Every structure is written in C-alpha cells, then in structure tokens.
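User: Can you predict the 3D structure for this chain?
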Amino acid sequence: MPRLIDLDAAEAQEYLMKPECYFRSDFPPYIGFQKILSDVAEAMGENSYTSFQKPKPNRAFEMSGVNYEIISTKDGRFAWRPFELIHPAIYITLVRTLSEPDNWKLLQDRFHTLHAGVVECTGFPVASNGGDGHDAAQVMNWWLRYEQRTLELSLDYSHILKTDVTNCYGSLYTHSIVWALHGMDEAKQKNGDLLGDKIDRHIQNSRFGQTNGITQGSVLMDLVAELVLAYVDHMVTEELSGEKDYHILRYRDDYSIFTNNDQRGAEVAKVISDCLRRVGMQLGASKTSQSTNIVEAGIKPEKLAAIQLEDMDISQAKTFQKQLLRIHSFARKYPHSGSLNRLLDNAFQNLLAVENAPDDLSVQVAIMCDIAIISPRAFPAISGILAKLISWAPEADRPALWGRVASKMKRIPHNGHLEIWLQRVTKAKGVGLSFESSEPICRIVDGEQPQLWNNDWISSQKLVEALDVSKLLSGKPEDYEPVPDVSELSLFRKYAEFS
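Assistant: Here is the predicted structure, written as structure tokens:
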C-alpha cells in the first residue's frame, strides 16, 4: 500500500475526492457523499470557494456552522468526540490547492526532510489499493508498521515508555501549519503568502475563525495533522543530541520510546512534550506508562485479553447468553476497542449459523443493549446481533421489543452517530417502528431538509442547489433487510486478526 504522499499530484487529488476520504464514517450504506461532492465540484468549475462568497461581513469566516459537527461518544457518558463534515466547497478548494503540481511537490519534499530525523514515523496515511476501504488499509498499516516493529525492537532495548497526545486534532494551533511546511524563518519573512498560510485560512474560514484545532474525520485533515506532528519530530531531532541510546516510534499521535533504563525514557518524553507545546499540543499523563516487558507492552492490553478470551473458545459456551456475558465483561474493561468489535463480529457470525430462537431472547437483547451503553461506537456491530435476535421474536412482538431497545439507546445523550444506526435497524423492512431523532442526518433520511452546512455566505444559487442535502441518500432504511448483510459490517471483519 503506497503512502498518500507518494502518489503524484493527480492521483492524490483523485484519491482525496473519494467520499470515504472526505468523511471516514461507518454510516449505513444508503448515506454517502459521492453525489454531493461531484455536483458541488461541477457547480464550482475551476473556481475557488472564495469566488462565491458574499462581501464582508457575510463571508464564511464570519459565520458559525459552516462545517457540520456530528457527535460520537466513547463511553455513553461524558467522553464525547466531535467529527466534522467540512463544507464541501471549502474541502474541494483545499484539495485542489494542495494537489497543484508545484504545491504537492513542496509537500512531498517537506515530508522527506521532516521524516529524516530520530523519530521513526509508522502512521503516515496510506492509500487503499483496489477493493479495500481507506480505514481497512490503515488497520493493516498499523499492524505491519507499528505493532510488529515494536516487537522487533525488543531485541535491542529493555524498557519502553508509551504515551500519546491529548486531544490532538482539537488542540493543534493552526498557525503552526505554515511553520511545519516552510520553517519558522520563511514563515515570518513571507507572512500570509505561503501555501501553509492558505491551508490555515481554509481551516479557519470553515471554523468561525478559530485557530485552535482542526477538523477530525477526513483523510485530508489526517494529512495536515501528520505534517504538524512530523514538524514536532523535526524539533525533537534538533533537541536531542549525544549518544543515540534510545529509539522513538510514532504512530500518528501515539509515541513509544525505547531505552535501556527508565530515566532515559523520561528524559526523551520531556523533550517530546516541550516540542509539542510549541504547536499547542501536550502529552496525556493518564495514558503514559512504562514497562520492562516490551513484548507485552507493545500489544494493546485489550488485544491480549481478546486473544485469551478467544482461546477460551467463547463460541463453545453452553449458551449464547454466556458468550454475550463474557463479551459484556470484556466491554466493561475495554470499551471502545477494535478488539471488542472483533469479538462482536465473531458472535454475529456464530449467531447467523443458529436456526432456532433461544428461550432467553429478551435477556440476550438486554445484554446487547448494555454493551452498547458501555461502548456506543460499537453499535454498528451490535446492531447485527440485535436485529438477528429480534427477528426470532413473534412478528407481533417485534415492534415493542425494538421500541424498548430504542428507548434505552436514547438515554445516551448527544450521540448522533448511534442514532443514525438506530434509525437503520428500527426502520428496516418489516420493522416499521416510528423513530424520532433531532440528529439532522436522521431527519434527512426521514425526508426533511434540515441544514447541515451553513450556506448563508454563498452568493451563487447554483452552488446552493448543488449542496441539497437530499443528495446524501441513495436509499432509505425501509429498503434494507432487518438483519444487516455481512457487507455492512465488513470493516470489523476485514483484517480482524490484526486489531
């Protein structure tokens, strides 16, 4: 799989214009961005989004809600994570700007320089090849370049310190983008005229002028974040001198520092922390750990626990309820983990092979709902199990059972991502449950026309019409079977052995 930065300019533009790169979501299959991106690109022609702006004070920069924010929660309580759909007109302009041949060459050369230091970068966005989706390609890349490399380094070092950046995307100082791309001296000499400044302005104009944070959810912003983190790597290289008695491995915003004593690991971490602060970031103390067992520390504890659980052969539990209870116990310890999704997918596959309805159907539904409460972002995987279980209920009882599921799920506050999937399963063919949600994407599915992006800054009626939100839909939940097809959950299955 090639790195994104190794594509040529035309290939990079084509790749970044893919809907799965515009927003890395696991939405139901009837929700997509291909139509709206292509129509907006056609309406814009060769022009920048700035060509369609109203005059001051009605520019995008002066307006809130230009991007659309969708909320997801990790724990069903207070760990909310905002994802943003960048305004399509601004996104397309930024992609075109970056992929101009001279600009792309500048970016390639700068990455080559920044990656030549003491930090080994293993998490650069890679381009999926062929049928594999972008996120599936990243899972494969993590396993090959980070986890396996960690195990290999245990031959040379005895200690490991692991840490990561707190709220990386949300804390990144946007003015640091120009420093990262051009260097501090050039950035100060040519204030406002450089490619890095243009990237900064695109981001600010879509986020009400904010300079703290970039959007999360697109491959394009992954590339921008990697540029700034590579700049931090470059500063770390300049700060560290003397004997090279350490090795730094970075996967996106996760750092592993390999040494032969704890003191040296702490010294290196201090340098990384100091350099991160210059671009608005900081290390997360709560997730920093040290170990003298690199092999064990190099593998996520949830992965090790999942391997042990699989070794127990949970599919051979005397009842499916016992299997679900074991997964429930795992979810309480490791919510929001890729390993949880893998265990749920295995359970879904086992359940598909079962022919007869269990006597404890409602109990199994209750256990699955509680797993969803613990780890709401696993709901796409959970929805398959719930749908299969409820399909066994007498037809007259299914609406009431789905209603109880929906009622419990709605107790999770401010979680648009879950509600989008809840709508998928409660309004599927033959279920017909009335589902109400304030989430705008759910309302679009219901045939309404809520605002996703604030378009009040746009002067062109043609461009506004191209942004018609109904174009996000290629179908509706009622077109799909109650039990999701295995392809809807393919990401959890593909490369499952690596997570």
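The chain is about 50% helix and 5% strand. Residues 219-239 form the longest helix (21 residues).
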